[in-house]
């Protein structure tokens, strides 16, 4: 009886943990694609692998502006990029300083899942 109860307890704990994970993953995916601003996917690609955003011609040479691969980013760097707390070489990425910690962590979770 006690064993069964314990098993039930463990099972429901695992289930709850699992659904936490799935919910936050979905949340992160949603935010990555629609962060109440321009979609991250537009520049960094749907999986965060990065891509060429645009190019321009300078002295007859094509200069490419690329959004980097961000699948391996850590929380600190992600926050810095979103809040523009560093000097970007190509400052075309919008500021997303209205995202909450929870939202940023969900985005990170999504990016990690795409590796
Ligand atoms: C208009 C295009 C564009 C959009 C939209 C955009 N980014 Fe970026 N992002 C860039 C570019 C370009 C860089 C590189 C900046 C530089 O030159 O340093 C960058 C840099 C970053 C970096 C820093 C990478 C590093 O190595 O430090 C992170 C993290 C990042 N972006 C995440 C995001 C997330 C998350 C979103 C959505 C909320 C987003 N970006 C939306 C273009 C974009």
UniProtKB/TrEMBL annotation:
Keywords: Heme, Iron, Metal-binding
Keyword Heme in record: yes
Stored PROSITE patterns: CYTC
InterPro entries for this protein: Cyt_c-like_dom, Cyt_c-like_dom_sf
Gene Ontology MF terms in the entry: electron transfer activity; heme binding; metal ion binding
Stretches assigned to the Cytochrome c domain: 23-115
Protein name from the UniProt record: Cytochrome c domain-containing protein
Organism: Lebetimonas natsushimae
